Amino acid sequence: MTAEPLILTPSAAKRVALIASKQSRPAILRLAVEGGGCSGFQYKFDLADGPEADDSISETDGVKLVVDSVSLDLIAGSTVDFVESLGGAAFKVENPQAAAGCGCGASFGI
Known about the structure:
Blueprint: E1 7-8, H1 10-22, E2 28-35, E3 41-47, E4 56-60, E5 63-67, H2 69-75, E6 79-85, E7 88-94, E8 100-101, E9 107-109
Parallel strand pairs: 1-6, 2-5
Antiparallel strand pairs: 2-3, 3-9, 4-5, 6-7, 8-9
């Protein structure tokens, strides 16, 4: 069974490209899921130098989103967006599998 692909929105891709260029790194965003956070799991974002062997890779506007196979099971079908609001700017994951979330949007439960 193939997991649902992840989607990186154009606004998120643009933000990753900007951050990567400032740090002279490839435009590759790694999304991982870790235990913890207010709802059981939390999202972790980082720039990657390249994909690992078991990564799922999706691409938008030349920017890659990579996710390891363990994390992918928890976030398959998600959309990664970059949202700017009065409260600040942040990457946001819209996860159709999340049964519970938290106010900060950084963690979720299944």
